[in-house]
Structure formats: structure tokens, C-alpha cells
Amino acid sequence: MNKFSLPLKPVAVILPLDGVFQWHISLIDWFRRSHTVFVFVAPAKGWDWRVHFWMGLEHMLFKDAPLARRVPAPNDAQCFDRSLDWSDYRIVLDFARQSMGLSNGYEVRYDGMADDRYLLGKILRRRSPKISLNSSSTGLEVAASYPSIQDRAVLIRALSTIFSRTAALCTELLDVEPHGRRKPLELSTGAISIQPMYLLKFAIRLLAEKLANQVIKKVKRTGYWSIALRRSIGVGFPAPPAPTQFSIISTPLNSYLADPFIFRYENNSYLFAEEFLYSVNKGVLVCAKIGHDGDVGSFEVVLERPYHLSYPFIFEHDGQILMIPESGADGKLQLYRCLQFPGTWEFVAVLIEEPIADATLFQEGGVWWILGTVARFGGSIHDELNAYYSLSLTGPWKPHSANPIKSDCRSSRCAGKIVRVDGRLFRPAQNCETGYGEGLVWCEITHLTPTFFDEVIVESWPAEAGSGFRGLHTYNSDEQFDAIDLKWDPNICQLKSSLKSVALKAKTPAKNW
């Protein structure tokens, strides 16, 4: 008999009696697609009534974040009884805020604590927690994630982000061999227990920010990106050990430039980028020629679609100039071929039927690889790095057996082309711990097979304190020029100033390159 025809053991879920949220119900419904699920409720100390009151106000005001909505326990839920034979279940998911010690049980921990009130303490301090699934009996970490919280000002939105990632981690328990998929994640900070004043400070800060936004929104755009260039150091080395000057490229007030890629064509360098147009709220791909003196010509649109485009990953293969732009808004990853450089492109094929962010292509050992982040269960697009491989550029592309190969907002989302130095692979990645593209880190890929992936962070590029910039998230280079993008919040005074350069200081590498 085929082993897959054997009946599957059921799944058990233990919920806290007074702390059931919509994400619990959604996860149970997901498990019921393939398994019989038994639900139990156990007594557990609940959250403070003032927290629930504040969350209720937020739900009325913002009318979103359904995963963070408190709901009744399912009608078929039974009272937890430790004397039951729990070995009858394939897995037991324990959300009851206390360790039951079951041999086949798994508990969710936030910063190492099984009590989700520690999650609340972290969010009220506007910090991201580490989420992990641990064996109830041995404490072994089976899966973990360090998620990016994009809206830290609204409690229910922050909780919804965390709950969606928690649900995604729980689905990994149905893998045949969940242990050892990814190495354990290190904590950035320790657990924070909730204090009475945290909620009051959180509420005051939210109200103050909303009021301030109403006052300044007419004179300030947030999330403005600029591109900066420098003369290449010419050795393929990702970062200098000392500050380096970059010249800022000016952009019009009705758009911004980001995601720079440099392509060498007929002994000239061309700068490809995303231009985000505020008028239509989407990005188009543009290109400008870089003069031998470093001056950048006018940008012209080279590729536009009805949906948002960005990250113009341009490369050459078999005598053809090709591009894989980010087209996640269309739900798929697409390949384009250049018919007349630089402005005429034709669609070639859909490579992967998934909305992949910042897909980065490279070839290693005769195998094509694509790395990019994918959102699951409504979570952030910045956190979960997926890998795909193929023997042919046009496919078929297969997903890595351990996808997501990394779940860490501090170094998952790609930030440019892979850099090769003496046969070693270095991947630029974004640090999104406190916000999208807050900084850039360099990871060395140490293991890459269809079944295993590993990398280590070797260097960090934060935006230099005092520079007026609060983020960077792309680095690319050719043999002549290096390009980065920088995030800043221009107000009227800043727009009138003649900002020419910014110093980027790379931290000393942890190892000798």
C-alpha cells in the first residue's frame, strides 16, 4: 500500500480559554483542509482588560487587522484533559500560555517565552519579537522567524503581522522532517514583560503622531528615495573599510528614484532604476547614460506596465540582454528581452507563478538560482527568503525543499546582485528590523544545494548617523561605478538645500575577507 494512502493521525490544538483570536480560527481551518482537527481549551491568565479595550477602539477606528480580532472558542472545543492519550495525535499545538510538556506537543514562544503577554510587552515598546516553535518536551527550536512590523504605531496591525507569521510557522509542522530546516535565530533583545505604563505611553504616542501627521503632511513626503553614485573601487569588494563619498542624483518633486542597477554596454555605463510616480502611485523602469566623468543624463522610461514595476535586474546571457523586474503586483515573476538597447523590451516568459519581491538571479555550479522574498498568510514581504533553482534559465523552476530558507527581517530581502570575490558568494540584503530598507547587510552564502541553504552576515552598512538619511536598501556596481539608494524625508527646507553627498561608514568585518 502507498504510504500516502494511510489515514493521517489527527491534529490537536489547545487554545487559551479567554484568549482566542481570529488567527487561531484561520489556522485551524487551514489544518482542516488535510487533517481532522480536535480543539481544546485550557484555563490561562488573560490579557489586561485595558489592552482589550484599546484594541476594541482601534478596530472601530481602523476597521482592519482581522487576525487580531478576539473571537469565541469554536463550538466543538473540548476542555483540556491531561489524562487523555495525546499520542493519538500527530502533533499537538499548544497556545495555552503554559508548557504542557507533551512529547508530541509544540508551543509558540515569543523571545523564548511561551506566554504571549511577553509579545504584547515587546509590541507596546515598538520592537519586533522573535517567534519560535519549540518542542514542549525538549525545548528544541523547530522553526523560527524574526518578522518586520511595518506599522508599529497601531497595536492591532502589529499584532496581526505577528499572528500571520506565527500561523505560517505552524504550517511547517506538517512537513515530513520539520527539524533542522533552518538554523536557530539569535535574539536581538531579550523578552519584555508588560508594564502598566506601556499601554498609556503607546496610546499617547499614537495620538501625538496622528496629530503631527495632519499638520505636516502638506509640506512633507515620507519614504523618499534618492540614488547616489561613486567611482568604483574596481576590485569587486562589497564595501570599503573607511567612509566613501557618493554623489546624489537629483530627482523631480513628483517622483523618486530607487533600486539602481548599472549595466555596461558598448564601453558605456547605463543606470537602470525604478521611478515611482506619485501621480499614479506606481513604479516604472527608467534608464539614463552615465558619462565618463560620472554625470548622469536624463532618465527615459524603458518599461511600463499597468501595475507597479521595480528592481530592474538586468543581465546578459548567450549574447542577449535580459531583465527580471519585480512585478509582484501582477502575481508572477517575468523575464524580458531587450530588442533595442536601452528602451525596447519584449516579454519572454513567466518564470515563477508567485509574487516574489526583489528576485535576484545567479548561476552557480551549472545551476540557475533565484532568491527572493515571499509573503505568506498575509505577512510581511520583507522577512521570508525563498529559493528556486533550474538547469535552464526559462525553467522549469523548482522551489527549494526548505522554503522559506530564511525567516529574518534583518537580512532576508535581497538588495542587489550577488558579488563574487575569490570564488565566494556575497549577497547584499536589507535590514528591515525597524522599517523597510533601514540599512544593508552583506551575507556570505556558505551552503547552497536544492535541500540546504546557509549564509552568515559578515558586514553591515547602516545609514550614517547625522547624514540626514535614514535608510539604504540597494547596492549594485560595474567596473566603473557603484550605485546605492538612500531614504530620507524631504521637507521644504531640505528640498531647498544643496545636498551633494553622504558618507557611508562600513563596520569592521567580523572576519578577514
UniProtKB/TrEMBL annotation:
Keywords: Carbohydrate metabolism, Polysaccharide degradation, Xylan degradation. SUPFAM superfamilies: Arabinanase/levansucrase/invertase. It comes from the Bacteria. Pfam families: GINT1_N. Residues 254-461 form the Glucosamine inositolphosphorylceramide transferase 1 N-terminal domain. InterPro entries: GINT1_N, Glyco_hydro_beta-prop_sf, Glycosyl_Hydrlase_43_Enz. This is Glucosamine inositolphosphorylceramide transferase 1 N-terminal domain-containing protein. The lineage of its organism: Bacteria, Pseudomonadati, Pseudomonadota, Alphaproteobacteria, Caulobacterales.
